[in-house]
């Protein structure tokens, strides 16, 4: 007989709530809880708000870059618990770069994040439709556009028009979604600093592109979601969160 897990007590902050949630869900799975029971557990936590989702990602990334990742080995029951449905609390539009493993960077488990990955973390039709699905059908509470250190797609967009023209047509299409963000780049002599600013500009540009889409604009206006940016430093493992409007302004 299935035993419904008790709802968790309110935590003092979203980070503590997320850590407690993961432990309670694992315990519930091992006791044979249903997907309805697990969904109920999730909906009793602070991650079901945009602010709570942001704090959950910050908390998970802090564990990752400090070398204290808490995800245990996944057992068969935890995998089977995902069969009947998914309840991610955030969606991340990230780059396809193999050095940017999103779930590891935020120290999350199965079913926590809905991830779209494309070179340069650019907004295209397929990715936009995927994010709209996450909003309308999965009830996510956050969308993050996450760029990263040493992004090859952004570096390609900084090449001359003649060099870009030598790339395959589909790759050029991706590059041309980045180049508008680089038009007013400040003159930065340090190569690494200039690259970081280019990636950040692209993140801001893609955030604004998303916010102009009707489904996302409506969901953000209603308070269902928040659209933010992020910059992942491969060397340190830390993510800089672009949450304030001033940080997101192109």
UniProtKB/TrEMBL annotation:
Q: Which GO terms describe its biological process?
A: carbon utilization
Cofactor, free-text remark: Binds 1 zinc ion per subunit.
Name the Pfam families on file. Answer: Pro_CA
EC code: 4.2.1.1
Q: Return one GO MF term.
A: zinc ion binding
Q: Which Gene3D superfamilies does UniProt cross-reference here?
A: Carbonic anhydrase
Q: Which UniProt keywords apply?
A: Lyase, Metal-binding, Zinc
- Reactions accelerated catalytically: hydrogencarbonate + H(+) = CO2 + H2O
Signal sequence segment:
none
Cofactors required: Zn(2+)
Family statement: Belongs to the beta-class carbonic anhydrase family.
Its protein name is Carbonic anhydrase
């Amino acid at each position: 007989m299935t035993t419904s897990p008790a709802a968790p007590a309110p935590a003092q902050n979203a980070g503590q709530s997320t850590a407690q949630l993961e432990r309670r869900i694992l315990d519930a799975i091992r006791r044979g809880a249903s997907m309805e029971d697990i969904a109920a557990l999730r909906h009793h936590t602070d991650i079901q708000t945009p602010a709570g989702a942001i704090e959950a990602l910050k908390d998970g990334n802090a564990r990752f870059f400090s070398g204290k990742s808490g995800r245990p080995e996944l057992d068969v029951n935890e995998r089977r618990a995902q069969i009947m449905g998914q309840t991610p609390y955030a969606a991340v539009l990230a780059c396809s770069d193999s050095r940017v493993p999103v779930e590891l960077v935020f120290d999350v488990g199965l079913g926590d994040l809905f991830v779209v990955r494309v070179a340069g973390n650019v907004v295209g039709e397929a990715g936009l439709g995927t994010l709209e699905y996450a909003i309308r059908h999965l009830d996510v509470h956050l969308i993050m556009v996450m760029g990263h250190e040493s992004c090859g797609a952004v570096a390609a967009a900084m090449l001359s028009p003649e060099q870009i023209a030598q790339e395959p047509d589909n790759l050029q299409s991706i590059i041309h979604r980045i180049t508008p963000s680089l038009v007013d780049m400040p003159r930065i002599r340090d190569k690494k600093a200039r690259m970081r600013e280019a990636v950040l500009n692209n993140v801001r540009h893609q955030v604004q592109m998303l916010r102009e889409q009707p489904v996302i604009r409506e969901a953000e206006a209603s308070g269902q979601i928040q659209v933010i940016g992020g910059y992942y430093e491969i060397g340190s493992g830390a993510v800089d969160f672009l949450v304030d409007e001033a940080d997101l302004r192109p």
